[in-house]
Amino acid sequence: MRIQGQFTLFDREEFEEWLMKQSFKRKVVLIQNHHTWSPDYKDFNGSNHFQRLDSMKSFHINDRGFSDIAQNLTTFPDGMIAVCRPFDVAPAGIKGANSNGICIEHFGNFDIGGDKMTDEHRKTILFLNAVLCKKFKLSISTESVVYHHWWSTDGDKVFNLKTGEKLKGSPSKTCPGTAFFGGNTVLDAQKNFIPLIATAFNDNGEDEDKLKLTNYQKTQLIEVLKGLLLQGVITDKSWVDKAQNDTLTVSELTWLNMIVIARK
After folding, report:
1. Which domain of life is it from (predicted)?
2. Which of 51, 56, 164, 177 has the maximum number of C-beta atoms within 10 A of its C-beta?
3. Residue 63: is it exposed, middle or buried by C-beta count within 10 angstroms (0-12/13-18/19+)?
4. How far is the C-alpha of 222 from the C-alpha of 160, rounded, in Å?
């Protein structure tokens, strides 16, 4: 973790530890995803995070007339995360969607023909959306995780966030980019972005959720599951397979226990 002025720079692990300790007053229901477009990857040298943030802040205040840097968070090509505008202050991200939003700017130009997203940047973008959904107890869906492209300049929704149906008006921008995780429409996000966030969410804390059993306990669990299967209490053989292959998690076993209690 590094701090310079109002900006704090984290790696993924540091950010999650910081985030989960925070208490915020503002209600958050939307996670906004943007790309900076300019500056883009050619303007990042691997160590100038704070210079880039200072430049964006200066542009937003002096040229755009904002009170501060627009975004609450910035992600970088090397996978680092910067906290920018305080979380309890609404961002200047999407007109019509700021009062209950958190704005993330992903450093780069992700329009077709623009920057090729690095693996570390990709991991951080997915991770960040996942941990924010976790922190604010949001559904991992296009009704919570949104793109700037889905709103008009006037601040009206251009698409139905659930179905992707086109509504009135025209998108204000291509942001977060026509090549951002396969495209910038609601349906693109539902197909290519949301499932990856869900995977990142489920992978988060995977070691803690791993079921740790002795050989005896494993054998007993398998026998119990086989018995439940024969009795028809459970009907999916994959429960037995997971126990045999050591892939059954604590969360899954808790869920199964609830199902068994309800059915017996």
Report:
1. Bacteria
2. 177
3. exposed
4. 46
- Cα 207 from chain centroid (whole Å): 20
| 63-111 per-position pLDDT tens digit | 999 999 999 999 999 999 999 999 999 999 999 999 999 999 999 999 9
- Tracing tokens 């910081």 back to the chain, one arrives at 18
Taking 70 as the threshold, does the pLDDT of residue 128 lie above it? yes
Residues in the chain: 264
Q: Are 102 and 131 in contact (CB under 8 A)?
A: no
Report phi then psi at 8, rounded to 5.
Answer: -125, 130
- Give pLDDT tens digits for 191-229: 999 999 999 988 755 555 677 788 888 899 999 989 988
Both tokens assigned to 24: 């915020």
Strand order in the sheet with 7-10: 2-4, 7-10, 81-83, 73-75, 101-106, 30-35, 145-147
